[in-house]
Every structure is written in structure tokens, then in C-alpha cells.
Amino acid sequence: LLAVVAGRISHGLNGRLLTLGLLASNLGDVFLGLDQINLFIEGHSSFLVAHLFYILLFVRLTPKPLQLSNRQKIFVGLLVIYGLSLSIWLLPVLGTNATPALAYAATITFMTATAITVCWKRPWVALGAILFTLSNSAIAIDRFLIPVDGISYFIWPSYYLAQLLIATGTLPLIRRHPPDQRNPLADHKIA
Known about the structure:
Shape: globular
Radius of gyration: 16 Å
Helix content: over 70%
């Protein structure tokens, strides 16, 4: 539904990137909803594509030249440490899945970092990207390390909240600005 809303009310390249990110995520939901075991690669490939659309959107929205606040630097640093730590923890058990899993981990980490670098007026999009990362981390831990009973009660709500925050954080601002503006969503004031 978020993809339909984004497609109907947004405009310009930024609106299309958001819509495509939501649609690719929806496709991943369909694959995993049909068969979490046999369609795992197809589902996560769809999410990988969604992260690439989000990266393009967030890079377009990042103020140029890039000037990060101390808070942004701390969050990006913690994110990189988290991503590397989780990857190192998972690496021994990934086997033949190591290369695609690490590529996926790097992509979602970069997507979240780019969401943090945009100077949003409100933190919803960055929080959504962080929740997306945590949801995917829970999937990786459950699938490859330690099966956790009831983990889906965290995974699905955090994932859907992540998508909602990303969409609702960008959609109203995309609608209010002409599609040719380079950075319509950014506050441009580095805290």
C-alpha cells in the first residue's frame, strides 16, 4: 500500500526512487511470504534492489558538500562497527552464502549510513533505515546462528515500521517541492 500511495502522490526522480524502493521491498515480501526457505535468495535479492533505490534517493538528498554533524558521525561510526561485528560473527557459519550475505550486509549498512547523512528535519527516515537494519539482522541471526522462537514478532513489525517511517518521512516533503530541486528534503542546517 505504501508503494501505491508513493506512486500516486509523489513526483520527480526522488518520488520514483522511493516508489521503486517500496515496490522492490513488496516483491521481497511476496517471495518470503510464499516460501521463506526456497525463495530466500529471491526475497533478499529484491530487498537488495530496494536498498539500492533507497541509496540513490538518499545520496540525491544529501547536502553537497557533505558536512556531517558530530551526532551523524557517531551514528555512522556505530553503524559501521555494528555491521562489521555482525558480519564477523556470521562469517564462520555462512559457508557458500558468505559472498552474497556479506554483499547484502554492506549494502544495507551503506543504505542506513546514507539515510543518516541526510539532514532530515525529523529523524523518521534515519530511524526507519536503522529499524530495517535491525530487522534484517534478526533474520540473519535466526537463520544462520541461533534459531529464536518468536523472532518474527520482532522482525515483521520492525520491518513494516521501518518502511512506514521511510515513506512517511519523505513523501510529504517530496510533494511540497518541485521535482527538479536537488535536495528538497534536507534541512541544510547541520546540528
